[in-house]
Hints:
By secondary structure, the protein is mainly α. It has a single domain, classed as 434 Repressor (Amino-terminal Domain) (Orthogonal Bundle), CATH 1.10.260. The protein is 57% helix and 0% strand. It is built from 6 helices and no strands. Helix 2 packs across helix 3 (29-36). It is globular. The model has no long low-confidence stretch (mean pLDDT 90).
Amino acid sequence: MKLHQRIRDIREDNNLTQIQVAEKLNTSQTVYSRYERNERILPAEYLYKLCIIYNISADFLLGLIDEPRPLYGVSKSIAESHRA
């Protein structure tokens, strides 16, 4: 699976909108949607921030591994903690 598919799927799995993720990345929804549609290359800075937001290894988002691994040993993402 490709990066653009993974970032869309992980966003949807966390019940976030493109607008919500774009705000966390300090960009617009239009720009963020282009990353999900593979129309723009996701900058490394945003990859880093997405890993923090979702508490997920970049290896998973980049398609190097098939099962997500948490960054912090706790499987709860920042997105989940904001919903609690």
